[in-house]
Amino acid sequence: MATRVGAAPGDDLTVAYRRLNAAYQQTLRYAEDVRRLYQQVQRAIYQSLLGLANALEAKDAYTRGHSERVGAWSRGVAAALGLPPGDVDMIGQAGLLHDIGKIGIPEAVLRKPAALDAEEWSVMRNHPLIGAQIVAPFDFFAGGALMIRHHHERLDGSGYPDGLTGDEIPLGARIIAVADVYDALTSSRPYRVALSHATAIERLTSEAGRTLDDDAVAEFVGLIQTLSTAKTDVGPRSALHPPR
Ligand SMILES: [Fe+2]
């Protein structure tokens, strides 16, 4: 058996260790490449969803600023509640996309310049289900899909589509509901005058613990004084631009 002259004991072990370490470092680089690619794919998907949201905004003028505000406020409340950054991001995104299902609602219903009748309401009430179906293919947004599906549920079970109660409703959906209700109350519609900020806050407070999550209402009331609608921050939407 050949033996290298002058080879110190353990040299083979050192070489093997170096090779193993180099292979490990290469694996880390591959893992980083995969992570980056995954993020790029996620961004591309968000971009596509945003395209759909923009299409909805073109179809329904009311939804435009509404989606932005609900996204920003939901994100703010989630952060104030101390949720992990990943959850805060997802709640902000789901808030932004919560009404995306309205893209599947006929314009005659969506843009009706008067209160909806019972039949039209039953059509309109499909939008959380349609919205959840639109984002369903994206596994990484499964939590967001649930928030979209349940953003019209109410704590006492009076909401839709599933009549969930209390903690059965995902926390993100409960947060989005508070922001959604406030914005609806303070927005003018052709058939309804907007409530003042003070009256809307009174309404929210009276619903806290009854139909709306009381913690989310408390944080929302605290934040709405400081959050500016002119500076909406919906989090990762700013990262929706193609990677540079
Ligand atoms: Fe909605």
Written account of the structure:
By secondary structure, the protein is mostly helical. The protein contains ten helices and no strands. Helix 2 packs across helix 10. It is elongated and about 90 Å long. It starts with 10 loop residues before the first helix and ends in a 20-residue tail after the last helix. The relative contact order is 0.13. Residues 228-244 have low confidence and may be disordered. The chain binds fe (ii) ion (FE2). Fe (ii) ion (FE2) binds at residues 98-99, 127, 151-152.
Summarize the structure.
By secondary structure, the protein is mainly α.
Q: Termini, distance in Å?
A: 57 Å
Order of helices and strands: HHHHHHHHHH
What share of residues are in beta strands?
under 5%
- Structure ligands: fe (ii) ion
Chain-wise SSE layout:
Layout: H1 11-59, H2 61-80, H3 85-97, H4 107-110, H5 118-124, H6 127-135, H7 142-149, H8 171-185, H9 197-207, H10 214-224
Bound molecules: fe (ii) ion.
Keywords, separated by commas or semicolons:
single chain, 244 residues, mainly alpha, 10 helices, disordered C terminus
